[in-house]
């Protein structure tokens, strides 16, 4: 309780009922477990050698995907959790925003083939689309203080969330 810190862990392999999940846990300052996110989008990648890669990856061969969103309260603020590849899915971030989150946190470890191109881009995209703070942490570091007031300020300045035309989007979806 001394430092009043919340800890959003990296991710670990969790075993439950004979299945393995890629799981991030969230801890309150008093040491209680306040969130557990099981990675929803398992990562697959196939960059053929002919295209300068020769890299294959299939997380689903070993792990089971989670099926629940994870929103934790950090003080008064709601924080949506994703793990690594979850960060690519804008619908997830949008739903977290719709649920009232002002911050998105994605513990992540991208590999070097696409990491340098996409890591920061995705983080900025999720933050900009949703007017949320977005944090992605590749390894353990000291975090700087989080300015939640800035989120409210930015949301007042350009009101994209209120300007959404869900009527138009719904019609387009129905038409397609
Ligand atoms: O989406 C990506 O490009 C990388 C994701 C990843 O490395 C992972 O989810 O383990």
TrEMBL record:
GO CC annotations, alphabetized: mitochondrion
Q: Please give one Gene Ontology molecular function term for this protein.
A: omega-amidase activity
- Which Gene Ontology BP terms does the record give? asparagine metabolic process; glutamine metabolic process; oxaloacetate metabolic process
Gene3D superfamilies per UniProt: Carbon-nitrogen hydrolase
* EC number per UniProt: 3.5.1.3
Task: Give the top-level enzyme category.
Answer: hydrolase
| Domain CN hydrolase per the UniProt entry, residue ranges | 1-176
Reactions catalysed according to its record: 2-oxoglutaramate + H2O = 2-oxoglutarate + NH4(+); 2-oxosuccinamate + H2O = oxaloacetate + NH4(+)
Output the PROSITE patterns linked to this UniProt entry.
CN_HYDROLASE
What PANTHER family does this protein's entry cite? NITRILASE-RELATED, OMEGA-AMIDASE NIT2
Q: What is this protein called?
A: omega-amidase
What is the species of this protein?
A: Drosophila persimilis
Phylogenetic lineage? Eukaryota, Metazoa, Ecdysozoa, Arthropoda, Hexapoda
Gene responsible for this protein: Dper\GL12311
């Amino acid at each position: 309780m001394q430092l009043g810190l919340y800890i959003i862990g990296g991710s670990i392999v969790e075993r439950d009922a004979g299945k393995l999940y890629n799981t991030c846990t969230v801890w309150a300052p008093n040491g209680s477990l306040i969130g557990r996110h099981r990675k929803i989008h398992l990562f697959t990648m196939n960059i053929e050698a002919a295209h300068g890669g020769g890299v294959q990856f299939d997380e689903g061969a070993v792990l089971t995907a989670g099926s629940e969103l994870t929103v934790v309260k950090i003080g008064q603020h709601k924080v949506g959790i994703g793990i690594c590849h979850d960060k690519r899915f804008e619908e997830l971030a949008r739903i977290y925003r719709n649920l009232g989150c002002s911050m998105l946190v994605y513990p992540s470890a991208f590999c070097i083939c696409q990491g340098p191109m996409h890591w920061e881009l995705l983080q900025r995209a999720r933050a900009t689309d949703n007017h949320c703070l977005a944090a992605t942490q590749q390894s353990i570091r000291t975090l700087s203080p989080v300015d939640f007031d800035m989120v409210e300020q930015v949301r007042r300045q350009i009101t994209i969330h209120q300007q959404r035309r869900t009527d138009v989007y719904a019609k387009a979806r129905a038409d397609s």
